[in-house]
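Ticket #4471: structure export looks truncated?
Reporter: QA, pipeline team
Priority: medium

Steps to reproduce: submit the single chain below to the structure queue and open the exported record.
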Amino acid sequence: MSKDTALTLRMLGTLTLVLGANLLCVLAFAFLLRPWVSPVTTALTTSLPGALAMLTEWTLLVVPLLVAFLWLQLRYARSELLDDVDALDVTRETHPEFVTRLTRLSSQMDVSRPTPAVVDSSIPNSFTVGSPRRATVVVSTGLLDTLDGDELDAVLAHELAHVQNRDAAVMTLASFLPTLTNGDYDVFERLDERLGGASMLAFGAIAVVGYVLSLPHLPGTPLSVTSLVSFVLMLALTVLLGGVALGLLASPVVFLSRRLSRRRELVADYAGAQATGNPTAMVSALQRLEDTESTPTSDLRATETVRGLCFLPHGFEAGGETEFRVSARSHPSTAERIENLRELTASV
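Actual output as written to the record:
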């Protein structure tokens, strides 16, 4: 299947906005860091003319920081999304049929096999997170109990299409900013859990490093009242303005992610059906999962964690306690998805 232009454009739009938000943060950090690394960057650019030297110096600062920011966000978002549904990695020994099918289809679709994971939930569903080199395909026990044979292959091929098209990576990355601003995840609380209660020590160390990096821009001598008060005021202003800027950027990220999600589901249905050579199995899987009695009929807690990751928009109810739900507005209707497959079905 050739590349879908609409999907590519929506991915680029979403990614551009995410990159722009990160660039604002990186530029602020690079401004603080520059006086401390200027001896190195100046030595590297000394033979260049003035304007080009300045541009090259900022590029040497900003690009590595931007890559690091994006890498950390991708890893954090992937980890939190998997934790949110209590997804557990599985092996061929524990889930032989699931892992065997995923391995075979990955080879068939020429993608690196994602990590297989299972959610203990009676609600049949699936989703994919992560980058092409470090993706995870998550299915519920309800999905494995409800589907088998060609229908299960169709759903797994759909998830692998998200890896193949790289839209899973874009959606995973795009989930970070909305979760940071709408309170779905308390980053500081999660950090405290991971550090075993030592978060205050970590924040203190970060504050000290920030103060040291800020010294060239602060009035007064180091550790003077003037420099300390100026640092606190600068930090408060940065947090305030940064919070406002991130909040303003979060809404368009959600909007673009929702538009991307609707298109990517149609493309993944089509690509998965092509990969298995059995579009009727994709259609029957959609119909079976849509009609299953396990599908929840009420939205107990609509989350803003991410838009449109799941195969169907009703999400999971992991362990009977932790819900992972996605707004139905992020998905095309099942009827639309089946109509999208009709042309392919007729040609087989």
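Status: closed, not a bug. The export was complete when the record was re-opened. Leaving a note from the reviewer for reference: The CA atoms of residues 146 and 288 lie 8 Å apart.
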